[in-house]
Amino acid sequence: MVLVEPFARMATNPAFLVQVIWEGFVSGVLYALIALGFVLIFKASGVFNFAQGIMVVFAALTLVGLHEAGVPAWVAVALALVVMYVLAVGVERIVLRPLVNQPDIILLMATIGLTRVLVGFGELVFGGEPKVMIANELGIPSGVWRIPLFDRVVVIKLIDLTAAIVAIVMVAGLAFFFSRTRIGRALRAVADDHQAALSVGISLEQIWVIVWFAAGIVALVTGIMWGARSDVSFALEIIALKALPVLILGGFTSVPGAIVGGLIIGIGEKIGEIYWGRLIGGGIESWLAYMIALLFLLFRPQGLFGEKIIERV
C-alpha cells in the first residue's frame, strides 16, 4: 500500500504532481543558495562556517529593522550590505586572523561561537518577535499565475517565481565568480594551501574579507527571499541548516553539487511529505533530508561531486 498508492495518486492527477514538483523546486533552489554561502567559506578557508544560517537571519532582520526605523527600502538594502561588510571585516580581524593555521576543529568551534554571538546580539537589537519582510517595498510581486494543465490548473505564486529566478541568477553568478575570475582562482588557492598562497603574494586577509562579504550578500538575498515567503524570525536559522544535507549530498567544495543537492532535497522532501506523509505518520519534511545525508555519509561521504581525498600514511 505504501509503495503503490502514492504512485497511483501521481498518475491520476499529474497536474497536482507538477504543482508539488514546482514547490519543491523553489525550496530546492533556495536551499542551494544557502548552501553556496557555506561553499564560499569552505573553499576559501577549508572550514565549515556554522554561522551561515544565523547570517541569513541577521541580514534579513537588519534590513527590516532599518526600514522600520524610517530608512527607504532600497537604501536599507544598501545599508544592510554595509553591515554585512563590517561583519566580514570583524570576523577576519577578530576570529580568523588569530587562528591562521590552527586545526580545522578550532575554526569550526569559532564559527559556532560566532553563531551564538549573532543570535544574542540580534535578539538584543531586533527582539525575538517575527517580523514581516518588506517584499512590496522592494518590488517583489504578489499574486498568482494560473497555468491550465491536464484539464486542471497549476498555481504558481509570483513571489515563488521571483525567488527561483533570483536564486538561479545568484547561483550562476557565483559559479562564474569561482571559475572565471582571478579572485575566484585565488580563493581556491587559499583553500588548498594557506602558506603556498601567501608565498605567491595572495593576501589571506583580503581574500577572507571578500569571501565572507560574498557569503553575507548571499545571506541577505536568501533572507529576503525566504522572508518574503514567510515571516523573518530566528526560526529561519533552522531552515538554513537544511543546507547541511545539501552540502553532504553535493559535496562541500562543489558549486554544481550545491545546485543538484538542493534540488534533490527540495523536490524529494516535498514529494515525500505530500504523497507518503499520511501513510507513514507525516513530518517527512523535517527528517528526510537528514536521512538522505546519512546514507551518503555511509556510502559516498565525498558527495556526488566532491573530490575523494586519499591520505598516505
TrEMBL record:
Question: Does the keyword Metal-binding feature in the UniProt annotation?
Answer: no
Q: List GO terms (cellular component aspect).
A: plasma membrane
The annotated topology with respect to the bilayer is:
Multi-pass membrane protein
Tell me where in or outside the cell this protein is found: Cell membrane
InterPro entries in the cross-refs = ABC_transp_permease, BCAA_transport_permease
Q: Does the keyword ATP-binding apply?
A: no
Main location, first listed in the record: membrane
Pfam families in the record: BPD_transp_2 (PF02653)
One MF term from GO for this chain? transmembrane transporter activity
A GO BP term here is: amino acid transport
Q: Where are the transmembrane segments?
A: 20-40, 47-67, 73-96, 105-126, 154-178, 207-226, 246-267, 279-299
Cite the entry's keywords alphabetically: Amino-acid transport, Cell membrane, Membrane, Transmembrane, Transmembrane helix, Transport
Its domain of life reads Bacteria
Similarity field: Belongs to the binding-protein-dependent transport system permease family. LivHM subfamily.
By its UniProt entry, which PANTHER family does this protein fall under?
ABC TRANSPORTER PERMEASE PROTEIN, BRANCHED-CHAIN AMINO ACID TRANSPORT SYSTEM PERMEASE PROTEIN LIVH
Q: What is this protein called?
A: ABC transporter permease
Species whose genome carries this gene: Prosthecodimorpha hirschii
Question: Taxonomy-wise, where does this protein's organism fall, top ranks first?
Answer: Bacteria, Pseudomonadati, Pseudomonadota, Alphaproteobacteria, Hyphomicrobiales
